[in-house]
Amino acid sequence: MKADPAGMARNLTPRSPDGALKLAVVGHTNTGKTSLLRTLSRNPDFGEVRDSPGTTRHVEGLRLLVDSATAVELFDTPGLEDGMALLDYLDVLAPPAERLDGPARIQRFLESPEAMGRFEQEARVLRKLLQCDAGIYVIDARDPVLAKHRDELTLLAACGHPLLPVLNFTHSPDQRIEEWRSALARLGLHAVVEFDTIAPPLEGEDQLYDKLALLLDTHAATLRRLKEDIARQRRQRREDALKLVAEMLLDVAALRLSAPAEPERLEQTAEQLRALARKREDLTIDALLKRYNFRSRDFPHRQLPLKGERWDMDLFHPQALKDVGLHVGKGMAAGAMAGATLDMFTAGISLGAATLIGAAAGGLWQGVDKLGRRLLGRLRGYQELTVDDAVLRLLAIRELALVAALERRGHAAQGPIDISALMQGREEALRKEKLPEELLEARASPEWSTLADHYPSSPRRAEAVRRLASRLEAQLNGRGPEPN
């Protein structure tokens, strides 16, 4: 299904294309009909959703596109409010003795004065269902099964089109799913879909379109193409999301700031480091929300308390040594160089300084222009600060929890996104796992951070993003260790 700026569908224009499957979304007032269309179209701005009856007063529609062509049209209709009285009126208007079939009885009602008066709302619903191939009957699964619901279903069935009941709000502790399934079966409606529009199941759309394909075999090919397109878009959204998270993690891991080794200056620089990391995460959150077609206000509680800075330089990662021309195969000189630098950080600087000068003079350190200035800065009393490993792990877990929440959130949801349950119990593992190789490599490559003053593009960084995104995918699917 083709995506556009409003989501995976667009509002319906007056003229309908030939061959598209037309579905009327019908049901009692305030059962979530508009919510269903918002979630299926991934358009949080379609129609109006309020916790009050009779919000939709006229017929609205949207189109689901596949390869720029309309596959399915969905029509949001007003809620049925007085089905019991209308059924009694139909018995007077078209007595059973006349032996009219269901559609003929409905047509007679639509031509009567009452269709423009007392039963105007019901007339809009029935007229639209007659024009469509099938109806989706949305049920609030928290409601008890009442006589009015049975009368509504009798009226809708009289239109002569297949009807697929959809049970909404199935995650509520007050749901009455089994009661509804039993009542629907007694009315001959055995194909039923459970689809919570606030928190739809990951395969909920597939189940909905599979059931429709059983009822509408002539449109089975169209529905299959729609399902395949939805699956492609789902995969692409996840791929894009995990790439956004991987990019952010590499940016924050590679970020380093220098400051004189004075408490006040170090604290100022540490706060600057935190601010840059928070801003980078905010950009990622906004990008994730946009990719899943949600709004920034849907995730208001986003401030992450970032604490923890590393006061070291990760100069001994193999890639860092390789970048400056130090290889194990270069023998004792290279080993002495690395050992002397380690000594400089752990025991003192005199040996390190002398060795650095000798190495530079002897040409052993081809990368002194890139890395040597950092060592010289340390020799002059500067510290380099990076974000702590635990903070990186927390960022990874937090963003993966957000991605998981977005994949399970319906576009009719009104409350804020809450990822606390998805993160619960995982923080304890933050300090127990090693960082993945890609983030260790980023530690040794400060030029990888787009937050740095100079950011040259790097094929090696692009490959690290790809590998890290793959690791995150495995974690999101429940495979492998926690995101380290």
Task: Give helix % range.
Answer: 40-55%
**Helix and strand pattern:** EEHEEHHHEHEHEHHEHEHHHHEHHHH
Q: How many angstroms does the end-to-end distance come to?
A: 35 Å
Number of distinct beta strands: 10
Shape: elongated
The largest sheet, given as strand count, sense and whether it forms a barrel, is:
7 strands, mixed
Which strand order does the major sheet show?
1-3-4-2-5-6-7
Number of helices: 17
Q: Using only CA atoms, what is the Rg?
A: 31 Å
Q: What integer is the average pLDDT? A: 79
Give an overview in words:
It is a single chain. The protein folds into two domains: 9-215, Rossmann fold (3-Layer(aba) Sandwich); 237-476, no CATH class. The protein is 48% helix and 11% strand. The protein is built from 17 helices and ten strands. The strands form two sheets. A seven-stranded mixed sheet has the order 1-3-4-2-5-6-7, sandwiched between helices. The protein is elongated and about 100 Å long.
What's a concise summary of this model?
The chain has helices spanning 33-41, 83-93, 102-110, 120-131, 147-157, 177-186, 204-215, 220-254, 263-291, 318-323, 332-346, 350-362, 368-379, 389-407, 420-423, 437-443, 459-476; strands spanning 9-11, 21-27, 60-66, 69-76, 134-140, 163-168, 193-194, 256-260, 309-310, 382-387. It is of the alpha/beta class and 484 residues long. Helix 2 (83-93) packs across helix 5 (147-157) and helix 8 (220-254) packs parallel to helix 16 (437-443).
